[in-house]
Amino acid sequence: MSETTSTYTGFWKESPRSGILGWLLSTDHKRIGIMYLGCIVTMFLVGVCLGLAIRLELIAPGETIMGAQTYNATFTVHGVIMIFLFIIPSIPAAFGNLILPIQIGARDVSFPKLNLLSWYCYVVGAILAVFAIFSGGGAPDTGWTFYVPFSTQTTTNVNLALMAAFMLGFSSILTGINFVTTIHRLRAEGMGWGRLPLFVWTLYATAWIQVLATPMLGITLVIVMFERVFGAGLFDAARGGDPILYQHLFWIYSHPAVYIMILPGMGVISEVIPTFARKPLFGYWAMALSSLAIAFAGSLVWAHHMYASGMSDFSILVFSLLTFIVAIPSAIKIFNWVSTLYKGSIELAPPMLHALAFIFNFAIGGLGGLALGAAASDIHLHDTTFVVGHFHYTMFGGTGFAFFAALHYWLPKFTGRMYNHKWATIAWGILFVGFNVTYMSMQAVGIQGMPRRYYDYLPEFQPLNLVATVGSWVLAVGLLIMFVNLWQGMRNGRPVGKNPWGSATLEWDVPSPPPMENFGEEDPVVTKGPYEFKGVVADEY
Amino acid sequence: MSIEHRDDTGARFGMWLFLYTEVILFSGLFILYAVALMKYPEQYSQASHKLNIYFGSINTVVLLTSSLTVALAISAIQMKRIKQCLTLCWVTVALAIVFLINKYFEWSAEISHGIYPGSETLAEMGAGVTSFFNLYYFTAGLHGLHVFIGATLIAVVAIMTAKGKVTSERYTLLENSALYWHLVDLVWIFVFPLYYLIL
Which of A11, A21, A38, B71 has the most C-beta neighbours closer than 10 Å? Predict the structure, then answer.
């Protein structure tokens, strides 16, 4: 045992405090990142179990494993956990904390204590969310969108769930403020804006959205709580309020939030692809600025969620047009990744496989988004399982696979150990097949007209639902193999050197695992760009 | 082992970002106000006249003065006049308390007339009036909460100044608390005319 844990040096051992307090009170960005990662993966697994339960219920028409009320609660909690506790913090809070300071040559983030506070906000939010399931009038059944008037009237435990989302929003804001300030203030000497790795650029764009948009969710959720407690009626048409306004306020945050979810994933892909193609990223500035363009344009498209809620034709036209505009910077990214691969010396290592899956899945998800952004097709597709399929293609097929790519790419850096590549590849294959079977069937049955959020359906939807449920179990097997393999690798894998992949960014210049304060006595001086592979040699492992 | 790192500009930068999030937080309420005003212009005017303009005006003067005193406190600490700085901080806190007491009397009077969120008296006055008072209570309440937080912040900084932890070389904490206080003031500068004056 002593031999197997001996590679856990660096920040795993060095800390001003020893034991568990050395973690719970640590302001070291790497320790906070690891704590975030642990919580996020745990919440992801909870969300996966709920998702599997939903699919199992839908295997056949009628009640199979749960009744209507339980089903409503299950998809609500699945949504709340996956959105607020997994996918929003997944890459920014976990890998952003682990990687961002090292990539820009800093010893920590600008506000280390605030960073720890944001983790505690996350934990409180997580506890409240889990508590909401088991206490009060039962688990919330509103859907993760908390639409009024139902959310102000239902007797289930919506208040706690709202409070949880509010706390998680606060955590997200603190991370955003921290990252923007860190990127502005703590870049190492020579680390100009033109030398920032793309992952940092996307985190920068993400952090701005977190700061700009999240307070709007905060105030909206607080108003709903106010409604529930005082019965005021700010969203009640009979008392001078307006329920549609709730939807506007909610989506003013929640649409930009999907870019909080996807942009860091795009950043991961932009790191992985050049490394395993051994080629500089094609179109550096186009990639950097398209991240900002997505953040900006993405903030102006919220009402495309509401074509069926009652809006003037002119508004629909405007929001439809703006929605299409977001496709442009997204497409720039896809084309640039593919151009980077062109004539590259491609190595199909596990992170690369996940990155390629990302491009495939995200392209499908993105194009499905255009079908939903166009008013004519949206009226048909609105509130069908096509929307669910589309969302999972972008969020799970996109950000989820990017998260897996990040795990396979960066975990060896922080654990100092390499997982088994053969099993990682097998897991990837199963995941990829299971994923596409599940959600492609969901999209197809949605086009046939199956509404979402129903626990029962007409018999003609059965075949595709059966396929989707089978796919979900293939997916689960893939996830299981992947996590077991990563866990095994972290415990018993072969030790790796500084730079197992032959990457050119700064984090691969420090030991694996990195020491406290990352860079020893002297601050690093940056003399080359993030994708200049000349003279960079991969360490054997 | 840890290398001393201090970045005052960074700290102020972070504070400005945070203030920005506060502006967005309140802007949601201003959106609701704008939409409801479009819908019920007459009832809004009618409801606005039920508010007591004296309470509102006194509170405006109190808050503006407190913004001045906290700004002077920064000038004082820059000139190493710690004692003067402390006095000015405590005057600011006192003015914040005056504001809240004033608010308490104003709200008690309104509540005793049956005007509060969810009340039946309010429901009888019409949808527009109800909407006005719902928003009024929510906005002023959230602002009051900010007054409370801001005053607490300034009190904490004053104690730290007295203990020598905030000094003439190191006063970013005081500056940031003052920035927060100015935001509280700024929000009120929009709330006061919208609810008490222009209708």
Answer: A11
Q: How far apart are CA B148 and CA B146, in angstroms?
A: 5
Residues 6+ apart with CB under 8 A from A189: A105, A523, A524, A525, A526
* CB atoms near residue B41 (< 10 Å): 12
SS3 A521: coil
Task: Mark out the alpha helices in chain B (DSSP H runs).
Answer: 8-39, 41-48, 53-78, 82-112, 120-124, 127-162, 172-192
CATH number 1.20.210.10 is the correct assignment for the domain at A21-509: yes
Compute CA distances B168 → A525, B4, B34, B153, whole Å.
34, 19, 44, 18
Instruction: Find the mean pLDDT for residues B82-111.
Output: 95
CATH class of B8-197: mainly alpha
DSSP B81: -
The 10s digit of each residue's pLDDT in B32-76 is: 999 999 999 999 999 999 999 999 999 999 999 999 999 999 999
In Å, how far are A115, A158, A175, A465 from A120, measured between CA atoms? 9, 22, 12, 40
What was the pLDDT predicted at A14?
A: 82
Distance, CA of A294 to CA of A209 (rounded, Å): 10
Residue A178 contacts B, CB cutoff 8 Å: yes
Set of chain B residues whose Cβ sits within 8 Å of the Cβ of A302: none
Three-state DSSP class for residue B116: coil
Handedness of CA A192, A197, A198, A204 (dihedral sign): negative
Asked if pLDDT for residue A10 goes beyond 90, the answer is no
Candidates A137, A212, A133, A202; CA nearest to A172 is: A212
DSSP track, A33-88: HHHHHHHHHHHHHHHHHHHHHHHHHTTSSS-SSS-HHHHHHHHHHHHHIIIIIIIH
What is the per-residue pLDDT for B4? 58
CA dihedral A93, A98, A103, A104 (to 10 degrees): 70
CA of A238 vs chain B CAs: smallest distance (Å): 7
Q: Which letter, b or e, does each residue of A119-136 get, where b requires 16 or more Cβ atoms within 10 Å of its Cβ?
A: bebbbbbbebbbebbeeb
CA distance B175 to B14: 12
d(CA B89, CA B72): 9
Lookup: tokens for A62: 């009628």
pTM, to two decimals: 0.94
- A384: helix, strand or coil: strand
Mean pLDDT (chain B, rounded):
93
Considering only CB atoms, B123 lies closest to which of A14, A218, A239, namely A239
The Cα B158–Cα B69 span in angstroms is 13
Residue of A382, A367, A371, A387 lying closest to A327 (CA atoms): A367
The DSSP result for A403-462, as a single string, is HHHHHHHHHHHHHSEE--HHHHHHHHHHHHHHHHHHHHHHHHHHHTTPBSS-S---GGGH
By the CB < 8 Å criterion, does A111 face chain B? yes
* Listed residue (A327, A329, A337, A330) closest to A270, CA to CA: A337
Closest CA to A253 of A289, A202, A219: A219
Contact of A82 with A99, CB cutoff 8 Å = no
Q: What is the pLDDT of residues A135-173, one digit of tens each?
A: 878 889 999 999 988 998 888 889 999 999 999 999 999
Res. A477: pLDDT tops 60: yes
DSSP calls for A107-139? SS-S-HHHHHHHHHHHHHHHHHHHHHHHSTTSS
Interchain proximity A231–B35, CB inside 8 Å: no
Task: Determine whether the interchain pair A213/B32 forms a contact, defined as Cβ–Cβ distance below 8 Å.
Answer: no
Please, are residues A27 and A116 in contact by the beta-carbon 8 Å criterion? yes
Q: Is the dihedral of CA B109, B110, B116, B120 positive or negative?
A: positive
Measured between CB atoms, does B21 come within 8 Å of chain A?
A: yes
**Residue B99, min C-alpha distance to chain A (Å):** 23
As a whole number of angstroms, the longest Cα–Cα distance in chain A is: 71
